[in-house]
Amino acid sequence: MDMSEEVLQQASPGLIPGSGTARAAKATRLSPSFISWLQAGPMMLVFLAFFLIPLVFVVIVSFWDYNEYQLLPAFSGRGYTDTFEGCVAQLPDLCTIGKTYVKTLKLCFMVWAITLFIGFWVAYFLAFHVKSKTWQMGLSLLCTIPFWTSNVIRMIAWIPLLGRNGLVNSGLIKTGLINHPLEWLLFSEFSVVLALVHLFTFFMVVPIFNSMVRIDKSLIEAAYDAGASGFQTLVNVIIPLAKPGIVIGSIFVITIVMGDFITIGVMGGQQIAAAGKIIETRVNALQFPAAAANAVILLAITFLIITMMSRIVDIKKEL
Amino acid sequence: MKEGRPRSFYVLAIFFAAYVLFLYGPMIAIYVLSFQGPQGGLTFPMNGVSTFWIAKLFQGTGIVDLGAAFRRSLLLGVIVMIATVVLSVAAGMAFRRKFKAQSILFYSAIASLIVPSIITSLGISLEFRIIDDLVKAHWNENFETSMGLLTSGLGAHLTWTLPFGLLIMFAIFNRFDPRLEEAARDLGATPWQTFRHVVLPIILPSVIGIGLFGFTLSWDELARSSQAIGAVNTLPLDLQGLTTTVTNPDIYALGTVISAVSFAVITLALGTIHMLNKRQAAKGSDAGKGLV
Description:
heterodimer, A: mainly alpha, MetI-like fold, 2 domains, two-stranded antiparallel sheet, 16 helices, B: mainly alpha, MetI-like_sf (chain A)
Protein backbone atom coordinates (compact mmCIF):
# COMPACT_ATOMS: atom_id res chain seq x y z
CA MET A 1 0.00 0.00 0.00
CA ASP A 2 1.00 3.54 -0.63
CA MET A 3 2.74 5.18 2.29
CA SER A 4 1.09 8.59 1.88
CA GLU A 5 -2.33 6.97 2.10
CA GLU A 6 -1.43 5.45 5.42
CA VAL A 7 -0.28 8.74 6.84
CA LEU A 8 -3.50 10.35 5.70
CA GLN A 9 -5.56 7.57 7.20
CA GLN A 10 -3.88 7.95 10.53
CA ALA A 11 -4.20 11.71 10.72
CA SER A 12 -7.22 11.72 12.97
CA PRO A 13 -9.89 14.34 12.30
CA GLY A 14 -9.74 15.48 15.93
CA LEU A 15 -6.27 16.89 15.42
CA ILE A 16 -7.29 19.26 12.69
CA PRO A 17 -8.15 22.67 14.18
CA GLY A 18 -11.69 23.83 13.64
CA SER A 19 -13.16 20.37 13.20
CA GLY A 20 -13.05 19.34 16.83
CA THR A 21 -16.78 18.69 16.99
CA ALA A 22 -18.27 16.21 19.39
CA ARG A 23 -18.83 13.71 16.63
CA ALA A 24 -15.26 13.84 15.40
CA ALA A 25 -14.03 13.38 18.94
CA LYS A 26 -16.27 10.35 19.32
CA ALA A 27 -14.85 8.84 16.13
CA THR A 28 -11.30 9.08 17.42
CA ARG A 29 -12.15 6.82 20.32
CA LEU A 30 -11.94 3.79 18.01
CA SER A 31 -8.29 3.04 17.48
CA PRO A 32 -7.17 2.53 13.86
CA SER A 33 -6.10 -1.04 14.50
CA PHE A 34 -9.53 -1.83 15.97
CA ILE A 35 -11.20 -0.41 12.86
CA SER A 36 -8.92 -2.54 10.67
CA TRP A 37 -9.94 -5.65 12.57
CA LEU A 38 -13.58 -4.68 12.21
CA GLN A 39 -13.17 -4.18 8.47
CA ALA A 40 -11.01 -7.19 7.62
CA GLY A 41 -12.29 -9.52 10.34
CA PRO A 42 -15.40 -10.87 8.58
CA MET A 43 -13.46 -11.92 5.49
CA MET A 44 -10.75 -13.45 7.67
CA LEU A 45 -13.41 -15.44 9.53
CA VAL A 46 -14.86 -16.80 6.28
CA PHE A 47 -11.43 -17.97 5.13
CA LEU A 48 -10.74 -19.43 8.55
CA ALA A 49 -14.02 -21.35 8.76
CA PHE A 50 -14.34 -22.45 5.14
CA PHE A 51 -10.79 -22.69 3.87
CA LEU A 52 -8.03 -22.92 6.50
CA ILE A 53 -9.77 -25.18 9.04
CA PRO A 54 -11.13 -27.46 6.27
CA LEU A 55 -7.58 -27.82 4.89
CA VAL A 56 -6.38 -28.83 8.36
CA PHE A 57 -9.23 -31.35 8.53
CA VAL A 58 -8.22 -32.80 5.16
CA VAL A 59 -4.73 -33.47 6.53
CA ILE A 60 -6.03 -34.88 9.84
CA VAL A 61 -8.70 -37.09 8.27
CA SER A 62 -6.18 -38.45 5.78
CA PHE A 63 -4.62 -40.25 8.77
CA TRP A 64 -7.89 -41.66 10.10
CA ASP A 65 -9.28 -45.14 9.69
CA TYR A 66 -12.52 -46.04 7.96
CA ASN A 67 -14.95 -48.85 7.30
CA GLU A 68 -17.78 -49.25 4.79
CA TYR A 69 -20.03 -46.60 6.23
CA GLN A 70 -18.20 -44.27 8.58
CA LEU A 71 -15.10 -42.39 9.65
CA LEU A 72 -13.14 -43.84 12.57
CA PRO A 73 -11.12 -41.17 14.35
CA ALA A 74 -8.11 -43.33 15.10
CA PHE A 75 -4.63 -42.90 13.64
CA SER A 76 -4.08 -45.03 10.58
CA GLY A 77 -2.05 -44.87 7.41
CA ARG A 78 -4.69 -46.81 5.52
CA GLY A 79 -5.76 -43.86 3.38
CA TYR A 80 -2.23 -43.72 1.98
CA THR A 81 -1.49 -47.45 1.85
CA ASP A 82 -4.75 -48.10 -0.02
CA THR A 83 -3.79 -45.38 -2.47
CA PHE A 84 -0.35 -46.78 -3.17
CA GLU A 85 -1.44 -50.41 -3.10
CA GLY A 86 0.95 -52.58 -5.10
CA CYS A 87 3.15 -49.69 -6.13
CA VAL A 88 6.40 -51.10 -4.76
CA ALA A 89 5.70 -54.63 -5.91
CA GLN A 90 5.01 -53.49 -9.46
CA LEU A 91 8.22 -51.50 -9.89
CA PRO A 92 9.61 -50.55 -12.34
CA ASP A 93 6.10 -50.51 -13.90
CA LEU A 94 3.81 -47.75 -12.77
CA CYS A 95 0.89 -48.63 -10.51
CA THR A 96 -2.60 -47.20 -11.01
CA ILE A 97 -2.00 -44.03 -9.02
CA GLY A 98 1.35 -43.47 -10.76
CA LYS A 99 -0.24 -43.88 -14.19
CA THR A 100 -3.09 -41.56 -13.21
CA TYR A 101 -0.70 -38.83 -12.15
CA VAL A 102 1.41 -39.21 -15.29
CA LYS A 103 -1.77 -38.85 -17.36
CA THR A 104 -2.94 -35.84 -15.33
CA LEU A 105 0.44 -34.16 -15.73
CA LYS A 106 0.40 -34.88 -19.46
CA LEU A 107 -3.06 -33.31 -19.86
CA CYS A 108 -1.96 -30.43 -17.69
CA PHE A 109 1.16 -29.79 -19.78
CA MET A 110 -0.75 -29.88 -23.07
CA VAL A 111 -3.45 -27.51 -21.83
CA TRP A 112 -0.82 -25.19 -20.33
CA ALA A 113 1.22 -25.02 -23.54
CA ILE A 114 -1.83 -24.36 -25.74
CA THR A 115 -3.46 -21.79 -23.43
CA LEU A 116 -0.11 -20.02 -23.07
CA PHE A 117 0.34 -19.80 -26.84
CA ILE A 118 -3.21 -18.57 -27.50
CA GLY A 119 -3.31 -16.36 -24.40
CA PHE A 120 0.02 -14.72 -25.20
CA TRP A 121 -0.91 -13.72 -28.75
CA VAL A 122 -4.43 -12.63 -27.85
CA ALA A 123 -3.05 -10.45 -25.06
CA TYR A 124 -0.30 -9.18 -27.36
CA PHE A 125 -2.83 -8.17 -29.99
CA LEU A 126 -5.03 -6.39 -27.42
CA ALA A 127 -2.14 -4.65 -25.67
CA PHE A 128 0.02 -3.54 -28.60
CA HIS A 129 -2.06 -3.53 -31.76
CA VAL A 130 -5.37 -2.17 -30.49
CA LYS A 131 -4.61 1.51 -30.06
CA SER A 132 -7.94 2.96 -28.95
CA LYS A 133 -8.85 2.49 -25.28
CA THR A 134 -12.53 1.99 -26.13
CA TRP A 135 -11.74 -0.80 -28.58
CA GLN A 136 -9.36 -2.35 -26.05
CA MET A 137 -12.12 -2.36 -23.42
CA GLY A 138 -14.73 -3.68 -25.83
CA LEU A 139 -12.59 -6.51 -27.18
CA SER A 140 -11.43 -7.54 -23.67
CA LEU A 141 -15.06 -7.65 -22.59
CA LEU A 142 -15.84 -9.82 -25.60
CA CYS A 143 -13.27 -12.35 -24.36
CA THR A 144 -14.53 -12.11 -20.76
CA ILE A 145 -18.25 -12.70 -21.26
CA PRO A 146 -18.08 -16.47 -21.95
CA PHE A 147 -16.16 -16.87 -18.68
CA TRP A 148 -19.33 -15.72 -16.92
CA THR A 149 -21.34 -18.64 -18.28
CA SER A 150 -21.63 -22.05 -16.72
CA ASN A 151 -18.70 -24.32 -17.47
CA VAL A 152 -20.97 -27.31 -18.04
CA ILE A 153 -22.85 -25.42 -20.74
CA ARG A 154 -19.59 -24.55 -22.44
CA MET A 155 -18.63 -28.22 -22.28
CA ILE A 156 -21.84 -29.67 -23.65
CA ALA A 157 -21.67 -27.05 -26.38
CA TRP A 158 -19.07 -29.27 -28.05
CA ILE A 159 -21.48 -32.22 -28.36
CA PRO A 160 -23.36 -30.98 -31.45
CA LEU A 161 -20.03 -30.16 -33.08
CA LEU A 162 -17.89 -33.16 -32.21
CA GLY A 163 -20.43 -35.95 -31.72
CA ARG A 164 -20.77 -38.96 -33.99
CA ASN A 165 -23.34 -37.13 -36.11
CA GLY A 166 -21.94 -33.73 -35.25
CA LEU A 167 -21.12 -30.88 -37.59
CA VAL A 168 -17.43 -31.80 -37.93
CA ASN A 169 -18.05 -35.44 -38.78
CA SER A 170 -20.92 -34.79 -41.18
CA GLY A 171 -18.91 -32.00 -42.82
CA LEU A 172 -15.90 -34.26 -43.32
CA ILE A 173 -18.07 -37.08 -44.69
CA LYS A 174 -19.84 -34.75 -47.10
CA THR A 175 -16.55 -33.48 -48.48
CA GLY A 176 -15.47 -37.09 -48.90
CA LEU A 177 -12.39 -36.83 -46.67
CA ILE A 178 -13.53 -39.71 -44.46
CA ASN A 179 -16.00 -42.58 -44.87
CA HIS A 180 -16.86 -43.27 -41.24
CA PRO A 181 -17.35 -40.71 -38.49
CA LEU A 182 -14.25 -40.12 -36.39
CA GLU A 183 -14.80 -41.64 -32.96
CA TRP A 184 -11.95 -39.87 -31.18
CA LEU A 185 -13.48 -36.42 -31.49
CA LEU A 186 -15.75 -36.70 -28.47
CA PHE A 187 -15.35 -38.43 -25.09
CA SER A 188 -11.61 -38.70 -25.60
CA GLU A 189 -8.42 -37.03 -24.46
CA PHE A 190 -8.74 -34.75 -27.45
CA SER A 191 -12.13 -33.44 -26.38
CA VAL A 192 -10.92 -33.02 -22.77
CA VAL A 193 -7.97 -30.87 -23.86
CA LEU A 194 -10.13 -28.92 -26.28
CA ALA A 195 -12.75 -28.17 -23.61
CA LEU A 196 -10.13 -27.21 -21.02
CA VAL A 197 -8.47 -24.83 -23.47
CA HIS A 198 -11.88 -23.42 -24.36
CA LEU A 199 -12.76 -22.90 -20.70
CA PHE A 200 -9.54 -21.56 -19.25
CA THR A 201 -7.57 -19.58 -21.85
CA PHE A 202 -9.26 -16.57 -20.22
CA PHE A 203 -7.12 -17.14 -17.10
CA MET A 204 -4.02 -16.75 -19.29
CA VAL A 205 -5.20 -13.74 -21.31
CA VAL A 206 -6.09 -11.48 -18.37
CA PRO A 207 -2.82 -11.55 -16.36
CA ILE A 208 -0.61 -11.44 -19.47
CA PHE A 209 -2.64 -8.53 -20.86
CA ASN A 210 -2.35 -6.75 -17.51
CA SER A 211 1.43 -6.98 -17.43
CA MET A 212 1.69 -6.07 -21.13
CA VAL A 213 -0.32 -2.84 -20.88
CA ARG A 214 2.01 -1.73 -18.10
CA ILE A 215 5.07 -2.02 -20.38
CA ASP A 216 6.38 1.45 -21.18
CA LYS A 217 5.93 1.90 -24.94
CA SER A 218 9.14 3.94 -25.11
CA LEU A 219 11.12 0.80 -24.23
CA ILE A 220 9.82 -0.84 -27.39
CA GLU A 221 10.61 2.28 -29.38
CA ALA A 222 14.11 2.29 -27.88
CA ALA A 223 14.63 -1.33 -28.94
CA TYR A 224 13.40 -0.43 -32.43
CA ASP A 225 15.70 2.61 -32.60
CA ALA A 226 18.64 0.50 -31.45
CA GLY A 227 18.07 -1.68 -34.48
CA ALA A 228 16.36 -4.70 -32.90
CA SER A 229 14.17 -6.75 -35.19
CA GLY A 230 10.57 -7.42 -34.22
CA PHE A 231 11.56 -10.89 -33.04
CA GLN A 232 14.47 -9.58 -30.96
CA THR A 233 12.20 -7.00 -29.33
CA LEU A 234 9.72 -9.74 -28.52
CA VAL A 235 12.27 -12.08 -26.96
CA ASN A 236 14.48 -9.53 -25.20
CA VAL A 237 12.01 -6.83 -24.18
CA ILE A 238 8.38 -7.91 -24.22
CA ILE A 239 8.58 -11.49 -22.93
CA PRO A 240 10.82 -10.65 -19.93
CA LEU A 241 8.56 -7.74 -18.97
CA ALA A 242 5.39 -9.80 -19.41
CA LYS A 243 6.83 -12.64 -17.32
CA PRO A 244 4.91 -11.91 -14.11
CA GLY A 245 1.65 -12.17 -16.06
CA ILE A 246 2.80 -15.35 -17.78
CA VAL A 247 3.66 -16.95 -14.43
CA ILE A 248 0.38 -15.93 -12.77
CA GLY A 249 -1.64 -17.19 -15.74
CA SER A 250 0.32 -20.45 -15.77
CA ILE A 251 -0.26 -21.01 -12.06
CA PHE A 252 -4.00 -20.50 -12.55
CA VAL A 253 -4.25 -22.88 -15.49
CA ILE A 254 -2.04 -25.56 -13.93
CA THR A 255 -3.84 -25.60 -10.57
CA ILE A 256 -7.25 -25.69 -12.25
CA VAL A 257 -6.34 -28.54 -14.59
CA MET A 258 -4.53 -30.54 -11.88
CA GLY A 259 -7.63 -30.52 -9.68
CA ASP A 260 -10.25 -30.76 -12.41
CA PHE A 261 -12.62 -33.67 -12.35
CA ILE A 262 -15.72 -32.20 -13.92
CA THR A 263 -14.41 -31.35 -17.39
CA ILE A 264 -12.41 -34.57 -17.50
CA GLY A 265 -15.52 -36.46 -16.40
CA VAL A 266 -18.00 -34.88 -18.81
CA MET A 267 -15.71 -34.54 -21.84
CA GLY A 268 -13.90 -37.84 -21.25
CA GLY A 269 -17.19 -39.74 -21.06
CA GLN A 270 -16.35 -40.65 -17.43
CA GLN A 271 -13.60 -42.92 -18.86
CA ILE A 272 -10.39 -40.97 -18.22
CA ALA A 273 -8.69 -41.29 -14.84
CA ALA A 274 -7.27 -38.12 -13.36
CA ALA A 275 -6.05 -36.93 -9.97
CA GLY A 276 -9.23 -35.01 -9.14
CA LYS A 277 -11.38 -37.89 -10.33
CA ILE A 278 -9.77 -40.28 -7.81
CA ILE A 279 -10.85 -37.99 -4.99
CA GLU A 280 -14.41 -37.82 -6.33
CA THR A 281 -14.58 -41.60 -6.71
CA ARG A 282 -13.32 -42.15 -3.16
CA VAL A 283 -15.85 -39.67 -1.78
CA ASN A 284 -18.67 -41.38 -3.66
CA ALA A 285 -17.57 -44.66 -2.07
CA LEU A 286 -17.64 -42.85 1.32
CA GLN A 287 -13.92 -43.61 1.81
CA PHE A 288 -13.17 -40.17 3.22
CA PRO A 289 -9.69 -40.85 4.65
CA ALA A 290 -8.60 -42.23 1.28
CA ALA A 291 -10.14 -39.21 -0.46
CA ALA A 292 -8.33 -36.92 1.99
CA ALA A 293 -5.05 -38.75 1.46
CA ASN A 294 -5.39 -38.25 -2.29
CA ALA A 295 -6.22 -34.60 -1.71
CA VAL A 296 -3.03 -34.20 0.34
CA ILE A 297 -0.98 -35.84 -2.44
CA LEU A 298 -2.61 -33.65 -5.10
CA LEU A 299 -2.02 -30.55 -3.01
CA ALA A 300 1.64 -31.45 -2.48
CA ILE A 301 2.23 -32.06 -6.19
CA THR A 302 0.41 -28.86 -7.20
CA PHE A 303 2.50 -26.79 -4.79
CA LEU A 304 5.66 -28.51 -6.00
CA ILE A 305 4.87 -27.45 -9.57
CA ILE A 306 4.08 -23.89 -8.51
CA THR A 307 7.31 -23.63 -6.49
CA MET A 308 9.34 -25.04 -9.36
CA MET A 309 7.79 -22.59 -11.77
CA SER A 310 8.46 -19.55 -9.65
CA ARG A 311 12.05 -20.80 -9.22
CA ILE A 312 12.60 -21.19 -12.94
CA VAL A 313 11.44 -17.64 -13.50
CA ASP A 314 13.69 -16.24 -10.79
CA ILE A 315 16.74 -18.10 -12.07
CA LYS A 316 16.18 -16.75 -15.57
CA LYS A 317 15.81 -13.27 -14.14
CA GLU A 318 19.25 -13.47 -12.57
CA LEU A 319 21.01 -14.72 -15.67
CA MET B 1 7.41 3.77 -34.74
CA LYS B 2 6.23 3.19 -38.27
CA GLU B 3 3.01 4.77 -39.42
CA GLY B 4 0.24 2.55 -40.71
CA ARG B 5 -0.40 -0.98 -39.62
CA PRO B 6 2.40 -3.55 -39.77
CA ARG B 7 1.75 -6.96 -41.32
CA SER B 8 1.78 -8.56 -37.87
CA PHE B 9 -1.38 -6.57 -37.07
CA TYR B 10 -3.36 -8.39 -39.73
CA VAL B 11 -1.97 -11.80 -38.81
CA LEU B 12 -2.83 -11.26 -35.13
CA ALA B 13 -6.21 -9.71 -35.94
CA ILE B 14 -7.12 -12.90 -37.80
CA PHE B 15 -5.76 -14.96 -34.90
CA PHE B 16 -7.88 -12.93 -32.47
CA ALA B 17 -10.98 -13.30 -34.61
CA ALA B 18 -10.40 -17.06 -34.76
CA TYR B 19 -10.10 -17.15 -30.96
CA VAL B 20 -13.37 -15.24 -30.54
CA LEU B 21 -15.07 -17.61 -32.98
CA PHE B 22 -13.66 -20.56 -31.00
CA LEU B 23 -15.04 -19.00 -27.80
CA TYR B 24 -18.52 -18.26 -29.05
CA GLY B 25 -19.09 -20.77 -31.87
CA PRO B 26 -19.97 -23.84 -29.80
CA MET B 27 -22.12 -21.81 -27.39
CA ILE B 28 -24.10 -20.29 -30.22
CA ALA B 29 -24.63 -23.83 -31.54
CA ILE B 30 -26.40 -24.94 -28.36
CA TYR B 31 -28.45 -21.74 -28.12
CA VAL B 32 -29.71 -22.40 -31.63
CA LEU B 33 -30.28 -26.11 -30.98
CA SER B 34 -32.39 -25.44 -27.88
CA PHE B 35 -35.03 -24.16 -30.31
CA GLN B 36 -35.29 -27.55 -32.02
CA GLY B 37 -38.71 -28.78 -33.03
CA PRO B 38 -40.40 -31.44 -30.85
CA GLN B 39 -38.88 -34.21 -33.02
CA GLY B 40 -35.41 -32.66 -33.00
CA GLY B 41 -32.31 -34.41 -31.68
CA LEU B 42 -28.99 -33.40 -30.17
CA THR B 43 -27.31 -32.42 -33.42
CA PHE B 44 -27.80 -30.35 -36.52
CA PRO B 45 -29.68 -30.14 -38.83
CA MET B 46 -32.59 -28.49 -37.06
CA ASN B 47 -35.80 -30.44 -37.20
CA GLY B 48 -38.21 -27.53 -37.20
CA VAL B 49 -38.14 -24.50 -34.95
CA SER B 50 -40.08 -24.29 -31.68
CA THR B 51 -39.88 -23.37 -28.02
CA PHE B 52 -41.05 -26.90 -27.15
CA TRP B 53 -37.94 -27.87 -25.13
CA ILE B 54 -37.82 -24.63 -23.20
CA ALA B 55 -41.50 -24.94 -22.35
CA LYS B 56 -40.87 -28.53 -21.28
CA LEU B 57 -38.27 -27.33 -18.78
CA PHE B 58 -40.81 -25.23 -16.96
CA GLN B 59 -43.36 -28.05 -16.91
CA GLY B 60 -40.75 -30.15 -15.12
CA THR B 61 -38.92 -32.95 -16.90
CA GLY B 62 -39.68 -35.57 -14.29
CA ILE B 63 -36.08 -36.44 -13.50
CA VAL B 64 -35.21 -33.38 -11.47
CA ASP B 65 -37.17 -30.49 -10.07
CA LEU B 66 -35.53 -27.75 -12.07
CA GLY B 67 -37.83 -25.01 -10.78
CA ALA B 68 -36.74 -25.65 -7.20
CA ALA B 69 -33.07 -25.85 -8.22
CA PHE B 70 -33.50 -22.59 -10.12
CA ARG B 71 -34.90 -20.83 -7.03
CA ARG B 72 -32.16 -22.30 -4.80
CA SER B 73 -29.38 -21.17 -7.14
CA LEU B 74 -30.95 -17.73 -7.40
CA LEU B 75 -31.28 -17.38 -3.62
CA LEU B 76 -27.72 -18.56 -3.03
CA GLY B 77 -26.39 -16.30 -5.81
CA VAL B 78 -28.06 -13.21 -4.36
CA ILE B 79 -26.83 -13.92 -0.82
CA VAL B 80 -23.30 -14.64 -2.08
CA MET B 81 -23.43 -11.41 -4.09
CA ILE B 82 -24.42 -9.29 -1.08
CA ALA B 83 -21.88 -10.96 1.22
CA THR B 84 -19.11 -10.63 -1.38
CA VAL B 85 -19.78 -6.92 -1.87
CA VAL B 86 -19.96 -6.10 1.85
CA LEU B 87 -16.97 -8.22 2.94
CA SER B 88 -14.76 -7.21 -0.01
CA VAL B 89 -15.40 -3.48 0.35
CA ALA B 90 -14.77 -3.64 4.11
CA ALA B 91 -11.58 -5.68 3.71
CA GLY B 92 -10.46 -3.48 0.81
CA MET B 93 -10.79 -0.43 3.08
CA ALA B 94 -8.77 -2.21 5.79
CA PHE B 95 -5.94 -2.90 3.34
CA ARG B 96 -5.41 0.82 2.82
CA ARG B 97 -3.45 0.99 6.04
CA LYS B 98 -1.15 -1.51 7.67
CA PHE B 99 -2.69 -3.90 10.14
CA LYS B 100 -1.63 -7.11 11.81
CA ALA B 101 -2.59 -10.31 9.99
CA GLN B 102 -2.67 -8.32 6.74
CA SER B 103 -0.40 -10.77 4.95
CA ILE B 104 -2.23 -13.77 6.44
CA LEU B 105 -5.49 -12.52 4.95
CA PHE B 106 -3.86 -11.75 1.61
CA TYR B 107 -2.20 -15.15 1.30
CA SER B 108 -5.37 -16.92 2.45
CA ALA B 109 -7.25 -15.23 -0.38
CA ILE B 110 -4.60 -16.15 -2.96
CA ALA B 111 -4.33 -19.72 -1.67
CA SER B 112 -8.11 -20.07 -1.71
CA LEU B 113 -8.02 -19.09 -5.37
CA ILE B 114 -5.34 -21.60 -6.41
CA VAL B 115 -5.90 -24.62 -4.17
CA PRO B 116 -7.84 -27.04 -6.40
CA SER B 117 -11.58 -26.64 -5.80
CA ILE B 118 -12.17 -30.32 -5.09
CA ILE B 119 -9.83 -30.10 -2.09
CA THR B 120 -11.58 -27.05 -0.60
CA SER B 121 -14.91 -28.72 -1.22
CA LEU B 122 -13.81 -32.00 0.37
CA GLY B 123 -12.38 -30.12 3.37
CA ILE B 124 -15.64 -28.28 4.00
CA SER B 125 -17.63 -31.49 3.75
CA LEU B 126 -15.27 -33.21 6.22
CA GLU B 127 -15.51 -30.25 8.59
CA PHE B 128 -19.31 -30.38 8.62
CA ARG B 129 -19.34 -34.17 8.96
CA ILE B 130 -17.15 -33.88 12.04
CA ILE B 131 -19.42 -31.16 13.46
CA ASP B 132 -22.43 -33.41 12.80
CA ASP B 133 -20.74 -36.33 14.56
CA LEU B 134 -19.94 -34.14 17.56
CA VAL B 135 -23.50 -32.88 17.82
CA LYS B 136 -24.86 -36.42 17.55
CA ALA B 137 -22.48 -37.74 20.17
CA HIS B 138 -22.90 -34.99 22.76
CA TRP B 139 -26.21 -33.18 22.31
CA ASN B 140 -28.81 -34.72 20.10
CA GLU B 141 -28.81 -38.26 18.74
CA ASN B 142 -31.47 -37.52 16.16
CA PHE B 143 -29.59 -34.59 14.65
CA GLU B 144 -29.46 -34.89 10.87
CA THR B 145 -26.87 -32.55 9.43
CA SER B 146 -25.60 -28.99 9.63
CA MET B 147 -24.64 -29.08 5.95
CA GLY B 148 -26.85 -27.11 3.67
CA LEU B 149 -27.27 -24.51 1.00
CA LEU B 150 -26.82 -21.55 3.33
CA THR B 151 -24.20 -23.04 5.68
CA SER B 152 -21.55 -25.20 4.00
CA GLY B 153 -22.74 -24.24 0.50
CA LEU B 154 -22.59 -20.51 1.16
CA GLY B 155 -19.14 -20.88 2.74
CA ALA B 156 -17.84 -22.90 -0.20
CA HIS B 157 -19.03 -20.28 -2.68
CA LEU B 158 -17.51 -17.43 -0.67
CA THR B 159 -14.07 -19.05 -0.76
CA TRP B 160 -14.29 -18.66 -4.53
CA THR B 161 -15.90 -15.19 -4.83
CA LEU B 162 -14.10 -13.30 -2.02
CA PRO B 163 -10.59 -13.54 -3.53
CA PHE B 164 -11.91 -11.99 -6.75
CA GLY B 165 -13.68 -9.28 -4.75
CA LEU B 166 -10.55 -8.46 -2.77
CA LEU B 167 -8.35 -8.29 -5.89
CA ILE B 168 -10.84 -5.95 -7.56
CA MET B 169 -10.77 -3.74 -4.44
CA PHE B 170 -6.96 -3.54 -4.69
CA ALA B 171 -7.30 -2.43 -8.30
CA ILE B 172 -9.88 0.22 -7.30
CA PHE B 173 -7.78 1.75 -4.53
CA ASN B 174 -4.68 1.78 -6.72
CA ARG B 175 -6.44 4.41 -8.80
CA PHE B 176 -8.19 6.20 -5.94
CA ASP B 177 -7.10 9.74 -5.13
CA PRO B 178 -6.81 9.99 -1.31
CA ARG B 179 -6.81 13.80 -1.49
CA LEU B 180 -10.58 13.61 -1.95
CA GLU B 181 -10.92 12.06 1.49
CA GLU B 182 -8.52 14.59 2.91
CA ALA B 183 -10.71 17.37 1.53
CA ALA B 184 -13.80 15.80 3.10
CA ARG B 185 -12.05 15.58 6.45
CA ASP B 186 -10.88 19.17 6.20
CA LEU B 187 -14.52 20.14 5.74
CA GLY B 188 -15.35 18.35 8.99
CA ALA B 189 -16.83 15.11 7.71
CA THR B 190 -16.78 12.14 10.07
CA PRO B 191 -15.11 8.95 8.80
CA TRP B 192 -18.55 7.48 8.07
CA GLN B 193 -19.70 10.62 6.22
CA THR B 194 -16.45 10.58 4.24
CA PHE B 195 -17.07 6.98 3.24
CA ARG B 196 -20.78 7.44 2.53
CA HIS B 197 -20.64 10.69 0.54
CA VAL B 198 -17.15 10.69 -0.98
CA VAL B 199 -15.55 7.25 -1.22
CA LEU B 200 -18.60 5.13 -1.97
CA PRO B 201 -20.00 7.20 -4.86
CA ILE B 202 -16.57 7.18 -6.52
CA ILE B 203 -15.98 3.44 -6.19
CA LEU B 204 -19.63 2.47 -6.78
CA PRO B 205 -19.24 1.41 -10.45
CA SER B 206 -16.46 -1.03 -9.52
CA VAL B 207 -18.40 -2.23 -6.48
CA ILE B 208 -21.22 -3.20 -8.82
CA GLY B 209 -18.58 -5.08 -10.78
CA ILE B 210 -17.74 -7.04 -7.60
CA GLY B 211 -21.43 -7.85 -7.16
CA LEU B 212 -21.57 -9.03 -10.77
CA PHE B 213 -18.59 -11.32 -10.17
CA GLY B 214 -20.10 -12.59 -6.92
CA PHE B 215 -23.45 -13.47 -8.43
CA THR B 216 -22.29 -15.04 -11.68
CA LEU B 217 -19.43 -17.01 -10.09
CA SER B 218 -21.89 -18.46 -7.59
CA TRP B 219 -24.63 -18.98 -10.18
CA ASP B 220 -22.30 -21.09 -12.32
CA GLU B 221 -20.24 -22.67 -9.55
CA LEU B 222 -19.87 -26.43 -9.70
CA ALA B 223 -16.59 -27.83 -8.38
CA ARG B 224 -16.88 -26.30 -4.92
CA SER B 225 -20.58 -27.08 -4.66
CA SER B 226 -20.07 -30.72 -5.60
CA GLN B 227 -19.15 -32.02 -2.13
CA ALA B 228 -20.10 -29.13 0.10
CA ILE B 229 -23.68 -28.25 -0.75
CA GLY B 230 -25.43 -30.97 1.27
CA ALA B 231 -28.47 -32.91 0.17
CA VAL B 232 -29.92 -30.43 -2.34
CA ASN B 233 -28.66 -29.54 -5.80
CA THR B 234 -27.99 -26.23 -7.46
CA LEU B 235 -28.84 -25.70 -11.11
CA PRO B 236 -25.31 -26.38 -12.43
CA LEU B 237 -25.19 -29.61 -10.41
CA ASP B 238 -28.48 -30.74 -11.96
CA LEU B 239 -27.14 -29.81 -15.36
CA GLN B 240 -24.00 -31.85 -14.77
CA GLY B 241 -26.15 -34.77 -13.65
CA LEU B 242 -28.12 -34.54 -16.89
CA THR B 243 -24.98 -34.79 -19.04
CA THR B 244 -24.61 -38.49 -18.33
CA THR B 245 -28.16 -39.38 -19.34
CA VAL B 246 -28.71 -36.80 -22.04
CA THR B 247 -30.79 -37.85 -25.04
CA ASN B 248 -33.00 -34.82 -25.68
CA PRO B 249 -32.38 -31.17 -26.44
CA ASP B 250 -33.87 -30.20 -23.07
CA ILE B 251 -30.29 -30.06 -21.74
CA TYR B 252 -29.54 -27.37 -24.33
CA ALA B 253 -32.73 -25.57 -23.33
CA LEU B 254 -31.58 -25.62 -19.71
CA GLY B 255 -28.16 -24.34 -20.79
CA THR B 256 -29.79 -21.54 -22.74
CA VAL B 257 -31.96 -20.53 -19.78
CA ILE B 258 -28.97 -20.48 -17.37
CA SER B 259 -26.94 -18.44 -19.87
CA ALA B 260 -29.83 -16.05 -20.40
CA VAL B 261 -29.92 -15.29 -16.66
CA SER B 262 -26.13 -14.80 -16.63
CA PHE B 263 -26.28 -12.47 -19.62
CA ALA B 264 -29.21 -10.54 -18.14
CA VAL B 265 -27.24 -9.98 -14.92
CA ILE B 266 -24.11 -8.94 -16.86
CA THR B 267 -26.09 -6.54 -19.05
CA LEU B 268 -27.89 -5.05 -16.05
CA ALA B 269 -24.61 -4.59 -14.16
CA LEU B 270 -22.73 -3.12 -17.12
CA GLY B 271 -25.64 -0.80 -17.87
CA THR B 272 -25.69 0.42 -14.28
CA ILE B 273 -21.91 0.90 -14.28
CA HIS B 274 -22.14 2.87 -17.51
CA MET B 275 -24.96 5.03 -16.13
CA LEU B 276 -23.06 5.72 -12.90
CA ASN B 277 -19.91 6.64 -14.80
CA LYS B 278 -21.90 9.06 -16.96
CA ARG B 279 -23.55 10.58 -13.90
CA GLN B 280 -20.16 10.96 -12.23
CA ALA B 281 -18.73 12.66 -15.30
CA ALA B 282 -21.71 15.01 -15.51
CA LYS B 283 -22.29 15.83 -11.85
CA GLY B 284 -19.11 14.76 -10.08
CA SER B 285 -17.38 18.11 -10.31
CA ASP B 286 -18.58 21.67 -10.61
CA ALA B 287 -15.14 22.92 -11.62
CA GLY B 288 -15.27 25.62 -14.26
CA LYS B 289 -18.99 26.13 -13.92
CA GLY B 290 -18.79 29.30 -11.87
CA LEU B 291 -19.62 29.68 -8.23
CA VAL B 292 -23.15 31.00 -8.49
